[in-house]
Amino acid sequence: MRYRIERRVEDPATAGFAAVVGATLADPRGWSGAGFALVEDPAAEFVVILAEGPEVDRLCAPYRTAGRFSCQNGPVVALNADRWRAGTDRWTGDLAGYRTMLVNHEVGHLLGRHHPPEPQCPVPGRRARVMSQQSTELDGCLPNPWPLPAELAAAARHDEPLAPPYEAYP
Ligand SMILES: [Zn+2]
């Protein structure tokens, strides 16, 4: 599965974006551990973009990202640059972990993975699922940048279409 990286911001705090995306997607703890070969290719259709809020909102519509959320919308993964710079106040891990989580979560959507059913944290004190909404609903779960074994096992079935278009209730 080929993807390209676009960093549409230029400040030093986002300088490592491409390196972090590349390392995260190649890491065997991530979705490559579910049998996805994720290869960077400047000509790829799938794209991981870092942009400011208003541009993410345009890329994500009709998802409502409100100037602060990130999304996957068809072949596009659009990550909010402010979240990349600072994480969120609900995230209890470090910033590097937040960035890794953001990449794995949104690329998880690109690979057809969905948010788990509510509650987002069924057992406080355990690691959150990477497809839980950890930016806003960690709710006592431990911050977790990587897919849990059960999430990798589910993804390894490769039974969901890639790059799903907008869904009314994701
Ligand atoms: Zn999500």
Structural account:
The chain has one domain (2-155): Collagenase (Catalytic Domain). 28% of the residues lie in helices and 13% in strands. The protein is built from five helices and five strands, in the order βαββαββααα. A five-stranded mixed β-sheet has the order 2-1-3-5-4. Helix 1 crosses helix 4 (95-110). The chain is globular, with a radius of gyration of 15 Å. The two termini are 23 Å apart. The chain binds zinc ion. Zinc ion binds at residues 105, 109, 115.
List the defining traits of the structure above.
single chain, 170 residues, alpha/beta, Collagenase (Catalytic Domain), five-stranded mixed sheet, 5 helices, 28% helix, binds zinc ion
Report strand %: 5-15%
Bound molecules: zinc ion
Question: Given the C-alpha coordinates, what overall shape results?
Answer: globular
CATH class: Alpha Beta
Largest sheet: 5 strands, mixed
Fraction of helical residues: 25-40%
Q: How many domains?
A: 1
Question: What is the CA-CA span between the terminal residues?
Answer: 23 Å
Number of strand segments: 5
CATH homology-level superfamily: Collagenase (Catalytic Domain)
User: Which architecture per CATH?
Assistant: 3-Layer(aba) Sandwich
Topology:
Elements: E1 2-7, H1 17-26, E2 39-40, E3 46-51, H2 53-60, E4 71-73, E5 76-80, H3 81-86, H4 95-110, H5 149-155
Parallel strand pairs: 1-2, 1-3, 3-5
Antiparallel strand pairs: 4-5
The structure holds zinc ion (ZN).
Zinc ion (ZN) binds at residues 105, 109, 115.
Give a short summary of the structure.
With 170 residues, the chain is of the alpha/beta class. It is 28% helix and 13% strand.
